[in-house]
């Protein structure tokens, strides 16, 4: 058994990824080559995924956020990311407002994967998001967003839900599309210096 056979990406995965991500065949093939070099097993573990995030966020602690992102892309729940799951992750986590990206954002916030978001889950993701923010940038946040709790309360408030209510995927997506604040608060975008 092993990885001696496939040096080229399978046609099926390639076509599938072209459709889902709009990346070109060349881009995907190039990534696949790199992926095989860096990850000969063909599977990314949670630890390796955290290391990838650590490279992008050298001034903060992206571990818990990386763990949530990993969970949301491990669609077959086998505890690893294969190439396809990984490329979709790359594509989805770049900021954007397509419905597919908002579907992903929903799955990120739906920590227990039960199809609904609670305020507690929003708080949990806000806590992870906060750890992405470098210390020097924390002081620049507006008063009503400068702790994970405040950010969670503000974000939850965008959906006009009571504390004990829960939020379905459709409500989440509509809410985010209709509310600039919600759109901004579900992501962390590094402040440009
Ligand atoms: Ca998987
Ligand atoms: Ca949930």
What does this entry look like structurally?
- The chain folds into 2 domains: 11-96, EF-hand (Recoverin, domain 1), CATH 1.10.238.10; 98-193, Recoverin, domain 1, CATH 1.10.238.10.
- The chain is built from 11 helices and 2 strands, in the order ααααααβαααβαα.
- The protein has a two-stranded antiparallel ribbon.
- It is mainly α and 193 residues long.
- The longest helix is centred in the N-terminal third of the chain and has 14 residues, at 25-38.
- Bound molecules: calcium ion (2 copies).
Concise account of the structure shown:
With about 190 residues, the protein is an all-alpha fold.
Mind summarizing the main beta sheet? 2 strands, antiparallel
Number of strands: 2
Structural domain count = 2
Helix amount:
55-70%
Indicate the low-confidence ranges by residue numbers: 1-5
- In N-to-C order, the SSE pattern is HHHHHHEHHHEHH
Calculate the mean pLDDT score and round it: 89
Name the beta content range. Answer: under 5%
Name the CATH homologous superfamily of the largest domain.
EF-hand
Q: What would you call the structural class?
A: mainly alpha
Strand order of the largest sheet: 1-2
- Radius of gyration of CA atoms, rounded to a whole number: 18 Å
CATH topology of the largest domain: Recoverin, domain 1
- Termini separation (Å)? 50 Å
From the spread of the alpha carbons, the general shape counts as globular
In the CATH hierarchy, what is the class of the largest domain? Mainly Alpha
- Cofactors, ions, other ligands: calcium ion
Number of helices: 11
CATH architecture descriptor of the largest domain: Orthogonal Bundle
């Amino acid at each position: 058994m092993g990885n001696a056979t496939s040096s080229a990406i399978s046609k099926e995965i390639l076509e599938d990824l072209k459709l889902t991500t709009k990346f070109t065949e060349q881009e995907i093939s190039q990534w696949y080559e790199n992926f095989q070099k860096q990850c000969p097993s063909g599977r990314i573990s949670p630890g390796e995924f955290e290391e990838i995030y650590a490279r992008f966020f050298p001034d903060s602690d992206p571990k818990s956020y990386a763990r949530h992102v990993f969970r949301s892309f491990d669609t077959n729940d086998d505890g690893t990311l294969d190439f396809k799951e990984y490329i979709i992750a790359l594509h989805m986590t770049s900021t954007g407002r397509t419905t597919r990206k908002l579907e992903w954002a929903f799955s990120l916030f739906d920590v227990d994967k039960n199809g609904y978001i609670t305020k507690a889950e929003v708080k949990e993701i806000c806590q992870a998001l906060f750890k992405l923010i470098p210390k020097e940038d924390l002081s620049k946040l507006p008063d009503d967003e400068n702790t994970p709790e405040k950010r969670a309360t503000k974000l939850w408030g965008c959906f006009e839900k009571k504390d004990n209510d829960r939020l379905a995927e459709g409500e989440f997506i509509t809410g985010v599309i209709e509310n600039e604040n919600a759109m901004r608060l579900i992501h962390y975008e590094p402040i440009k210096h």
